Amino acid sequence: MAVSFGTSWPGNMEICGRSSEREEVGGHTHGAEFSLPQADGGKDAWLFLAACFVVEALVWGFPFSFGIFQEYYSTHEPFSSKPSGIAAIGTTATGIMYMIAVPLAPAYNRWPWLANASKWAGLPIMAVSLVAASFANEVKYLILTQGILYAIGGSIVYCPALIFVDEWFVQRKGLAYGIMWAGTGVAGLVIPFIMNTLLSQYGFRATLRIWAVAVVVLSSPLIYFLRPRLPISAVSNSPRRGLGFLQTSTFWILIAGLTIESSGYFIPGIYLPSFARSLGMSPAIGTMLVSLVNGAGVLSTVGMGMLIDRVHVTTVILISSVGAALSVFLCWGLSNALPLLCIFSIFYGFFAGGFVSTNAGFLKVVKQRDESTDVGTLLGLMSAFRGVGAMASGPMSEALLRNQRWQGKPDVGYNSSFGGLIIFTGVTAMVGAVGFLGKRLGWV
After folding, report:
1. Per-residue confidence (pLDDT) for residue 380, from 0 to 100
2. 3-state secondary structure the chain
3. Which of 28, 153, 299, 388 gives 20 to 30 Å between its CA and that of 134?
């Protein structure tokens, strides 16, 4: 049984399997019997959002800090002698965590009780994946455990929270998503330093085991609060309902920009430590640069989330894309010393990091075009296409590094072996603004 929100974005927003405040039972309408928690505020809503923030930080902060592991695995045995595929560990984890929403969303729609029940299984899977990774001696086993298995566990914890946000926040949806997604930035500011310290003192095996324990201990008390606001109906919904948005140009233009932007978005976070080392800087400097990128995104995810509630999504996409592209071309490409690298990390982290907040605006615009849109399915497809870009960035970045056309005197980034990566990152950031062009042409 679907629910309609009278105060939601244009069109009644239907959430899979949820009963509304006014539900007809046996031919009679009951309103007062259902005392639902307050939406857009109140103790329960803010406790839910706080739990989302922390779980987001723990689940996503680890793969978003993979640049530290990339540098460690590339310079330490047993992986440094055969480093091919190391970059794919991190991009596989992030890619699958985005893409797995495609099968999960229809499943949650078909069996509404599953979202709230399955969240308890995610943490054990994450812990097992990290412990298993600590026994790996080849890159392919790290991809299987730290990449694939970790992503599956993290997604099972994270996806229900992502769906339930839509119930707890209606008018302040952009702000809520922004605060939730800021958890990744906050974790990305702190976790790299933790990982760098643990790796340097204890090695990767003990580090992965310590983090497995930390994730379970810190997340377990919060899983309870990741619960739906609305009663769960026993009636399942057809997974085919609400797919009319697939026939709109709005969806395909915005999803194209999202996918292209994602294919370059993760590259600085993965390769900045290696780039810093190529300039003779210490591993601690590389850690700091990754933290700056992630930390700068905290303010932008919240700020651009608030902006999404006030202006058209394509305007925010343009701000994010142009700012990120200029920071790459003017700062990373011309950098040969720490000050300019720090400036790049801050500006890129701010502008590129805020792109994720455009997802809320994406939802809003598509709902305006087709009011029957199923939000869970749309979120799943958005995440999947972002995952396609993330997974593609791993092998593409390694191929660009193997191509030495740009290598010469390493006086600036463009003339280093990272030149191809730098240009690719800037171009994909700029092309990510295709949605703004589509709006100007009347296609969005």
Report:
1. 79
2. CCCCCCCCCCCCCECCCECCCCEEECCEEECCCCCCCCCCCCHHHHHHHHHHHHHHHHHHHHHHCHHHHHHHHHHCCCCCCCCCCHHHHHHHHHHHHHHCHHHHHHHHHHCCCHHHHHHHHHHHHHHHHHHHHCCCCCHHHHHHHHHHHHHHHHHHHHHHHHHHHHHHCCCCHHHHHHHHHHHHHHHHHHHHHHHHHHHHHHHHHHHHHHHHHHHHHHHHHHHHHCCCCCCECCCCCCCCCCCHHHHCHHHHHHHHHHHHHHHHHCHHHHHHHHHHHHCCCCHHHHHHHHHHHHHHHHHHHHHHHHHHCCCCHHHHHHHHHHHHHHHHHHHHCCCCCHHHHHHHHHHHHHHHHHHHHHHHHHHHHHHHHCCCCEHHHHHHHHHHHHHHHHHHHHHHHHHHHHCCCCCCCCCCHHHCCCHHHHHHHHHHHHHCCHHHHHHHCCCC
3. 388
